[in-house]
């Protein structure tokens, strides 16, 4: 339902401005907002990757008490910031150039394929960042008292 609403909003923007490339403005702004949200989550030490993985694995927010997991999620969240920044740069440049067809192609190319790369990169970073003796994502350690 959210996707349909966003498409309707994007179509409305393009209809109002009379410029086909403005259909992609909503996408540019959403990617900019997402980049800022992921960046802010890293800065305030509530990395969104940790929030998502914690909820998906049933750990909720216990990972925050484990300094190793907190650090790993902070590092592994950076690819997500990067993907949104990349989209803003690419979509923004193409929007400024009025390249509607290329915008459509890049919209497809920079969605699921790029997210798959982010998942793989985040997993790789998580595995490399956690100490060898760490019990894993499903088993946060309590800090030593």
How would you describe what is shown here?
The protein has 145 residues and is an all-alpha fold. It has one domain (2-129). It has helices at residues 2-17, 25-43, 48-56, 67-76, 78-97, 100-109, 112-129. Helix 5 packs antiparallel against helix 6 (100-109). The longest helix is centred in the middle third of the chain and has 20 residues, at 78-97. The model has no long low-confidence stretch (mean pLDDT 93).
What is the overall silhouette? elongated
Tell me the span between the first and last alpha carbons: 47 Å
Poorly predicted parts: none
Judged by helices, strands and strand pairing, the structural class is mainly alpha
Helices and strands, in N-to-C order? HHHHHHH
Mean pLDDT: 93
Report Rg: 18 Å
Number of separate structural domains = 1
Strand content: under 5%
Give the proportion of residues in helices.
over 70%
Number of helices: 7
Number of strands: 0
Report the major sheet.
none
InterPro entries: UCP010219 (IPR016566)
Organism: Saccharothrix coeruleofusca
Protein name: DUF3159 domain-containing protein
Pfam families: DUF3159
What's the structural blueprint in terms of helices and strands?
Elements: H1 2-17, H2 25-43, H3 48-56, H4 67-76, H5 78-97, H6 100-109, H7 112-129
């Amino acid at each position: 339902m959210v996707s349909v609403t966003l498409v309707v909003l994007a179509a409305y923007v393009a209809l109002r401005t009379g410029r086909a490339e403005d259909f992609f403005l909503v996408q540019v702004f959403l990617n900019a907002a997402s980049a800022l949200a992921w960046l802010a989550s890293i800065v305030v030490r509530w990395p969104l990757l940790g929030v998502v993985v914690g909820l998906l694995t049933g750990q909720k927010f216990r990972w925050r008490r484990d300094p190793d997991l907190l650090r790993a999620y902070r590092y592994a969240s950076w690819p997500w910031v990067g993907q949104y920044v990349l989209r803003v740069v690419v979509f923004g440049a193409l929007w400024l150039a009025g390249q509607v067809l290329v915008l459509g192609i890049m919209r497809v190319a920079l969605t699921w394929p790029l997210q798959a790369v982010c998942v793989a990169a985040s997993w790789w970073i998580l595995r490399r960042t956690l100490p060898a003796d760490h019990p894993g994502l499903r088993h946060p350690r309590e800090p030593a008292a």
